[in-house]
Model the fold of this input.
Amino acid sequence: MFKLRLYQKEAVEVSVDFFNDKTKKNSIILLPTGSGKSLVIAGIVKKLNGKVLILQPTKEILEQNIAKFRIFGGQATIYSASFNQKNLSQVTYATIGSIIRKKHLFEGFKYIIIDECHFVNAKGGMYEELLNYLNLKTLGLTATPYRLVTDGYGGSILKFLTRTRPRIFKDVIYYVQNKTLFDQNYLVPLEYIDIEGFDVSQIKVNSTGADFDDESLKRYFKIIDHADRTVAVVKDLNDMQRNGIIVFNKFVDEALYVKNQINGAEILTATTNKKERTETIKALRASEITTVCNVGILGIGFDYPELDTIVLARPTMSLALYYQWIGRGVRIHPDKEKTLVVDLCGNHNKFGKVEDLEFHENNGLYFISDGKTQLTNVYYGDEKPVNTIFTMPFGKHKGKLISKIPKDYIIWLNENVKLHGKLKQKVGSRLK
Done:
């Protein structure tokens, strides 16, 4: 039987009060990776009177969540095609993709809890469709309460979930700081190792402004022999006899190359079938293999406490991705003293340490910082990429470089048009 930690008990109590308070709107609980969200969810559900729907984005997270609830003695059913189970009860754990076309079946439910609620998009998608249809009070849990929002002008803003427009969640009703959990030894210490030789300024940002351009990244990887750099690092780590190594790769061919050069390595990608995926993870847990090269698979919901080495072999402009990658290695285990975070692509220099990320509230407005600088609700990812230009997106000078547009038009634009994002920034620089 699990015994809840103090902050977990507090989170449960606040959440139950939230559901029982008719005046409160959809809200978020902010709990760091490794803090035990599945236990908190179980504690909440046990204290609610009424039918509860718990939503999660993947089969793996559902499996972990319902397992913890059952350890508490709870009775629940699963509604998910991935499990080949579609049963409803007082407490139902479900994956969103399996229920969206059957949402009428859930009209008798009273509460909704959404794990990994940063996947909820208020501008459309399955979650928004379901929530609008059922119109039930909703609680979201996440470690990364922000979304990268493009501004339509080639730029992007990392927005806190409560500050998007439209929005699903209004308030943060409870939070735990990362540093608190590290200081109290609930999370394992992290050691960051930065590998030199990667220049992020040589990579273009993609057309949405949300991350790096794939073709630009492939070209740069080839120039610096990035796959061989990764192989050399992973071989050194294997020689150190680490308990488990997860390599976060960007491209399948690159991951396959690394896998083929490393004894005891395997690969997971989006095309890996469920049986092979299960067998690979099982082999890693049993120490039958030492290394898993993965492309977009193990970033969320992969729970393996013994894991003590994370290799970041791809750059990202997403703070959420960076946090989730490192989060795979923060869980404590008797056989590890620390987790190595080996960064080949400058992510650590860009975002800082995970343990330094902080939640702040200012007059009802929420944001995340790295302990020094505000990271959410500010312009994000301005990497000054090679050969990237910014042109006027509308009006009589559409398509022209901002720097080439007549100054009198820039002045008129600033005084008469409500500008946003990077366009506002560029016009402002012309007025200085």
